[in-house]
UniProtKB/TrEMBL annotation:
<feature type="repeat" description="HEAT">
    <location>
        <begin position="115"/>
        <end position="154"/>
    </location>
</feature>
<dbReference type="InterPro" id="IPR016024">
    <property type="entry name" value="ARM-type_fold"/>
</dbReference>
<dbReference type="InterPro" id="IPR021133">
    <property type="entry name" value="HEAT_type_2"/>
</dbReference>
<dbReference type="InterPro" id="IPR011989">
    <property type="entry name" value="ARM-like"/>
</dbReference>
<dbReference type="GO" id="GO:0019888">
    <property type="term" value="F:protein phosphatase regulator activity"/>
</dbReference>
<dbReference type="InterPro" id="IPR051023">
    <property type="entry name" value="PP2A_Regulatory_Subunit_A"/>
</dbReference>
<keyword id="KW-0677">Repeat</keyword>
<dbReference type="Pfam" id="PF02985">
    <property type="entry name" value="HEAT"/>
</dbReference>
<dbReference type="InterPro" id="IPR000357">
    <property type="entry name" value="HEAT"/>
</dbReference>
<dbReference type="GO" id="GO:0005737">
    <property type="term" value="C:cytoplasm"/>
</dbReference>
<protein>
    <submittedName>
        <fullName>PP4R1 phosphatase</fullName>
    </submittedName>
</protein>
Length: 270
């Protein structure tokens, strides 16, 4: 019964945490018995079971309970198979969604070596606009996961493609994550490539795209500031924060903190 398998998946994370805390007594139980079940249920015929398996996997990754070898040898190969060009549409959409969500929880080397090439392929998927939409909505997170060099070499060309996509929802998603993408690049790339690209979005024929671009204008401009003098930085949750200068803090040590936090639109991308 699918409901039994779904319920089982919901119990996997607390069991895994218990086994981790009791590791001297159960040194290999999780890796031998539970992890194979999670991996198998990622390809279950029932979509509710697959969804429960995906949620369980993300919790396990967030809690750092999955060994690096299991990620590279068991999880990533399954996701690559599910997101292959000839894969079933429903499986592909689910796979690209979980790839984007887990990227921030993996090592940079793993993401760049195993998942980034497939992500770049999916950005150009001509069959399913849903796949491209997920890639566009999570583009900033992928850039942050792989760093500046891979972003400028591999991801920026794909970002240009998505920003000129025929579907306006794709262009809108790009406008919403523009600050996060810009923050990962060098000042020269911001000036020479991203600025003209942003102008094209702010002049888009679709008013929804223009509106999203105008909402991202301030955060995008903030990426041109010198962090050491302006105190601008991006938190792990995707928000843009302004840290007061050290001399101001000392001068007003008796005053309440005046930290300002601006939420990045990419943090709310779905």
């Amino acid at each position: 019964e699918p409901t039994v398998r779904t319920e089982l998946m919901e119990q996997i994370p607390p069991i895994a945490i218990f086994l981790q805390e009791s590791r001297p007594k159960f040194p290999t139980a999780f890796f031998e018995y539970l992890m194979p079940i999670v991996v198998r249920y990622l390809t279950d015929v029932n979509n509710q079971v697959r969804k429960a398996g995906q949620e369980a996997l993300l919790i396990l990754l967030e809690q750092d309970l999955v060994a690096q070898s299991d990620i590279e040898n068991k999880v990533c190969p399954i996701l690559l198979d599910l997101s292959a060009p000839d894969s079933d549409d429903e499986y592909k959409v689910e796979a690209v969604n979980i790839i984007c969500k887990m990227a921030s929880m993996l090592s940079r080397a793993t993401v760049e070596h195993m998942l980034l090439p497939r992500f770049c392929e999916l950005c150009s998927d001509g069959k399913l606009f849903q796949v491209r939409k997920i890639c566009a909505a999570n583009f900033g997170d992928i850039c942050n996961a792989v760093g500046q060099e891979a972003t400028e070499r591999l991801l920026i060309p794909k970002f240009f493609e998505l920003c000129s996509d025929s579907v306006w929802g794709m262009r809108k998603a790009c406008a919403e994550c523009f600050m996060a993408v810009s923050y990962t690049t060098s000042p020269e790339v911001r000036r020479s490539k991203l600025s003209p690209l942003f102008i094209s979005l702010i002049s888009d024929t679709c008013r929804w795209v223009r509106q999203a671009a105008f909402q991202s204008l301030g955060p995008f401009i903030s990426t041109f500031a010198n962090p050491s003098s302006a105190g601008l930085y991006i938190r792990e949750d995707g928000t843009l924060s302004i840290r007061p200068a050290a001399q101001d803090v000392n001068a007003n040590s008796c005053q309440p903190s005046n930290n300002i936090t601006v939420t990045s639109s990419s943090a709310n991308a779905v």
